[in-house]
Specification:
By secondary structure, the protein is an all-alpha fold. It has one domain (1-73). It is built from 2 helices and no strands. It has helices at 34-43, 65-68.
């Protein structure tokens, strides 16, 4: 399934306007489902309640933006 595998897989992010500490490493977990929440957070966009006549599944991810800014972030209840 989409939620299996990828345990402790590194992610390299370069965003000089937001990530001030070069070479920073964090052990905070993240998951591919967090990308949509992060993109919405970064852009200030809202997730649609309806798209092409259908209701999309809710966003399950948590934004990674606090991690990029050197802060702790809200974690997932269960990530498995």
């Amino acid at each position: 399934g989409a939620y299996e595998g990828g345990i402790r897989t590194p992610l390299v992010v370069r965003w000089p306007a937001v990530i001030r500490q070069r070479g920073a490493i964090t052990t905070q977990p993240g998951h591919v489902i967090d990308f949509m929440a992060t993109f919405l957070d970064v852009t200030g966009a809202s997730y649609p309640k309806e798209f092409q006549g259908r209701r999309p599944l809710p966003v399950e991810g948590k934004t990674l933006l606090p991690v990029f800014q050197g802060h702790e972030r809200e974690s997932h209840e269960v990530l498995c």
